[in-house]
Amino acid sequence: MTGKTIRLTMAQALVRYLAAQRSEIDGKDEPLVAGTFAIFGHGNVAGMGEALAAATDVLPTYRAHNEQSMALAAIAYAKARNRKQFMACTTSIGPGATNMVTAAALAHVDRLPVLLLPGDIFASRLPDPVLQQIEHFGDPTLSVNDTFKPVSRFWDRIMRPEQILQSLPQAIRVLTDPADCGPVTICLPQDIQAEAYDYPAEFFAPRKHRLRRPAPDAREVAEAAEALRNAKRPMVILGGGVHYSEAVAEVRGFLNKHGLMAGESQAGKGALNWDDPHNLGSVGVTGSSAANTLAADADVVLAVGTRLQDFTTGSWALFKAKPKLIQLNVAAYDAWKHNALPLIGDARVTLPLLSAALGDWKVSADRAAHGTAEIARWRGAVDAATAAPKQGNALPSDAQVLGAVNRKSAPTDVVVNASGGLPGEMHKLWKTRDPKGYHMEYGFSCMGYEIAGALGVKLAFPERRVLALIGDGGYMMMNSELATSVMMGAKIDVVVLDNGGFGCINRLQQACGGRPFNNLLVDAHRKVDVPIDFAAHAASMGAIAEKVANIAELEAALDRAKTSDRSHVIVIDTDPMITTQEGGAWWEVAVPEVSTRKEVEAARASYEKQMAARSGAAE
């Protein structure tokens, strides 16, 4: 060190800078970057590996088994921590890097922070072509890391060690910005990682980051209040932004004061406890009959912190009365969607201002009574669908499995899922009792997220029980971080629902008129039947594992898992054809216009009818 500079390699400087970033959480000073997942190879072991090894006391490094799943675990951590903390992930070049592209896409869709640090080819180009290097004949500047550009909020390639002085602050800006939040990719050529530079000492001074809470424009508040006051049949939709702005208390107070009823998106579920009198339940394609009934005739819809994807809106066919839409969102991009009245601001700040503008206004007694009656009917349907079978040992439904897990879980337990038929069943039927008790990745619906995500949630909430629910298809896609959870002592409980393949898509295929084909294992091209022993596989990775035959045995196994000393996997066979019929709404899936199958022709006619009905509602 000379004067006010510190001579470090670029990798050492990057690590030191990340370790200096702090986050204020509930008045406490915490690390902004909670740790680094790393799988080392020839593109990062010498540079980043050496730098991380020397900094484990301030920036812990975790070893994973798959680059995609370690990035998914990091993303789940950030989601669980309400985006106030995040993790970094470093890989070698080539397949190690591109394995993270799927995770980057997930984080981009879900607006979640993760810092991706893939190794890259030599900036000098002297050893070209190196192992795992693609060679673009017309552009020698390209590497596989250019594939991250469309799925990153911020992307850079460091070609000189001093470039991080400009790049890293911009990366942190994006990772901590509530409106622009998403994945950041900084590509690190392996020779530049090892080059030294005299960095200004002040670059490494600790810096505290606080959640920015932009207030709304007063005119937008007044316009939203006027629209609500004039509404006869209003409703609210709650999205993930409610959690990220930590506005749960404000949402509950707002609904209670004004008598409004709310439906929840997948990301918004948990904002209200399942038995809250204002909770209509899930909304949209996987929605409750209560939420969807009120949505169908709503004349004003206040959407709080949601990007209103097609599952939430029933492909925009749900709102049959053509309501006026108010979009309360911190991101202007979302607030301006679908010709909405924009209400741009942080939900925690904005809802009290909107409430003050409404004064003592409340929804009509008739509208409130209508919502209460629909809620009561829906809760009866939930209890019926999730009840344990009264007799026999037939294959249970997903809903019956959910009922068992729900009954055997505590309010603060966290349930994790992402793909298959389970998201629809869980959105409808899971009884949330804690704002962070429901962790669903349904923006990208990434098969295999469940076990990796559960690991990330457990790192975020070591004091909570974390339960991953996963289908056999998702388990086969990605399961390696089960071994990581055992190795790290980060206990998770996993329930594998084995329905013999991709049961959800098999049902969708037939709903579109297709014959069962290539989804269930029995309908796939095969020469040999090889039953997969999921319990034996899980046990081989160090987990406690068992297979149960029915719901009663599942409940007993869940009790055992609660007190087991390491990750515990329970496998149960389920019926691939049963799904909860109550609730739900249309979802647009294009059906072939020409087919030799009468079933496809009938499905196409139904599709065209739904399209025409939506067009009529949109006029």
Describe the structure.
- Helix 16 runs parallel beside helix 23.
- The protein is built from 24 helices and 23 strands.
- The longest helix is centred in the middle third of the chain and has 22 residues.
- The strands form five sheets. Strands 5-4-6-7-9-8 form a six-stranded parallel β-sheet, sandwiched between helices.
- It is globular and about 75 Å long.
- Strand 4, helix 2 and strand 5 form a beta-alpha-beta unit.
Offer a few descriptive terms.
globular, Rossmann fold, 619 residues, hydrolase, single chain, 18% strand, 3 domains, THDP-binding, 6-stranded parallel beta sheet
Output the CATH topology of the largest domain.
Rossmann fold
Q: What structural category arises from helix and sheet content?
A: alpha/beta
Can you list the strand order of the major beta sheet? Answer: 5-4-6-7-9-8
User: What is the general shape?
Assistant: globular
Largest beta-sheet characterization: 6 strands, parallel
Pfam family, one: TPP_enzyme_M
GO molecular function: 3D-(3,5/4)-trihydroxycyclohexane-1,2-dione hydrolase activity
Domain Thiamine pyrophosphate enzyme central: 221-352
Protein name: 3D-(3,5/4)-trihydroxycyclohexane-1,2-dione acylhydrolase (Decyclizing)
